[in-house]
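Re: that backbone. Tokens:
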């Protein structure tokens, strides 16, 4: 089998995806637990990073060369890899916000977004890419 970069990155995404779901379950079970909250935000950040980069690599494999996250999201939406482009743009903005500033109120809003819509959007892309995996 040919070594394909997006498939290699996807293997790492699978692990991050599982960790995000574990953190989401733990946070849902104990919503006031600060360590679970931090785990959820951290798992979201690295899962989001791997997700958009895997989409970037998949686009490149498909003949579309793009590098910036916002452009990857737009082209991923255009090529029907991403179904909810607006949510992905919101994820990018929240990821950037959480990477540079930590405010409790902002973190609570981001965690609600992660639990209520970001995991669903990541799940959709994950399953799209999973379906494209060969053998």
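Recovered sequence:
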């Amino acid at each position: 089998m040919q070594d394909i970069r997006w498939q290699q990155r996807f293997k790492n995404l699978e692990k991050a995806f599982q960790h995000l779901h574990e953190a989401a379950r733990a946070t849902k079970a104990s919503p006031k637990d600060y360590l679970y909250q931090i785990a959820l935000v951290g798992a979201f950040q690295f899962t989001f990073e791997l997700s958009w980069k895997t989409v970037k690599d998949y686009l490149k494999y498909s003949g579309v060369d793009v590098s910036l996250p916002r452009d990857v999201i737009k082209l991923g939406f255009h090529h029907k890899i991403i179904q909810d482009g607006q949510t992905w743009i919101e994820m990018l903005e929240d990821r950037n916000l959480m990477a540079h500033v930590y405010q409790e109120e902002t973190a609570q809003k981001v965690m609600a977004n992660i639990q209520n819509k970001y995991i669903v959007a990541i799940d959709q892309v994950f399953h799209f890419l999973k379906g494209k995996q060969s053998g």
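DSSP finds five helices and no strands in the chain. The chain has a mean pLDDT of 92.
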